[in-house]
C-alpha cells in the first residue's frame, strides 16, 4: 500500500486564510479587538497577554501609543480578561514596571488603569496563572498553567516552547473534518487551539498524570464550557497502551514536548504505531525542543524499532520553519512564547513504515 500522507511543506504551501468556526464555543471578548490597533500595538498586546518577553522596541511603541491614544491604551488594562484569566503576577510586575519607567521618561501621564494594574499584581495570591492567545479575528484561547515548571512531580502542568511552536505551525494546516488526538497534552494548548480555531471533527486530549488530567479538563471547560462534545479528555499510559478498549479513530496524532524521557520513548512509539493502524492515511506530528541530542537520537531509534518512519522533518526557530536550506517560511505569531534556553524545535511527520512501501 502506498502512503497518501501529504508532506507538511505541501500542506503549508496550499494554505489559504480561514476564519474560526462560529460553532467552536470559544470565549470572545468584544471589548478587546486586536484588529483595531496599529500593528506594533497589536504585537505588544498579543505578547503581553501570552506572558511572552517584550523587547525594548515593543515597549517604546506601546508607550508612544499611550501618549497619543491614552483612552484606547487604558482600555487594554481595564479589560475584564485580566480578572477572568489572571496572568502571572511576577510577569506583569516586571512588564508594567518597565512600561511605567518609559512613560515617565517621556513625560507621559500614566493612565489610572495602569496604576491599578500595578497595584493588583504586587502580591502573588495563587499557584496558577493564565496565558491568553488571540487569532487575527480576536477570538481567544485561554490556558491555565502552574506557576512552577515542575509541580506535583510533573512538568505537564506548564506550557512549553514546543506546544506554542506546534500551534503556530498547525494554524497553517487545514484540519477540517479531521479527528485529532493529542498525546501527552499537558495544558492542552495545541489541541484546544485546533478545536477552537479550526473546523475539526473531534479533538481528544490525553495524558496520564491525574493532576494533568484535571487541568486538561479545567482548560477544556475554560474554552468550551459544558456545551461542546467536540473536545474530550482521556487517560493514556504509553507504557501500557492497548487498542482493546479504545474506540477513537484519529486521522491525526499530535504531541508537543513529549520526547524528553528516554525510558518512555519505546512505549510512545508503540502507542503511535497502534493508533496509526486505526485509519488509513493517518499520520503523526511530533514537536520537541532540541534540548538534548542524545534523547532525540533515542527517539529516532525507537521510531525505527517500532515499525515507524519519519516522512519529513523540520526545525522551528526565530519565527521560521525550515525544511532544508532551500525551503523555509515565516510562521504566524499567534502563540508567542519566551524560553529560558534558546534552542530550535524539531518537528517530525511520522507514518507507519508498512504504509510507505
UniProtKB/TrEMBL annotation:
Name of the molecule in the record: FAM86 N-terminal domain-containing protein
Lineage: Eukaryota, Metazoa, Ecdysozoa, Nematoda, Chromadorea
Superkingdom of origin organism: Eukaryota
An annotated GO cellular component: protein-containing complex
Chain segments annotated as coiled-coil in the UniProt record: none
Pfam family, one: Methyltransf_16
InterPro entries, alphabetized: Methyltransf_16, SAM-dependent_MTases_sf
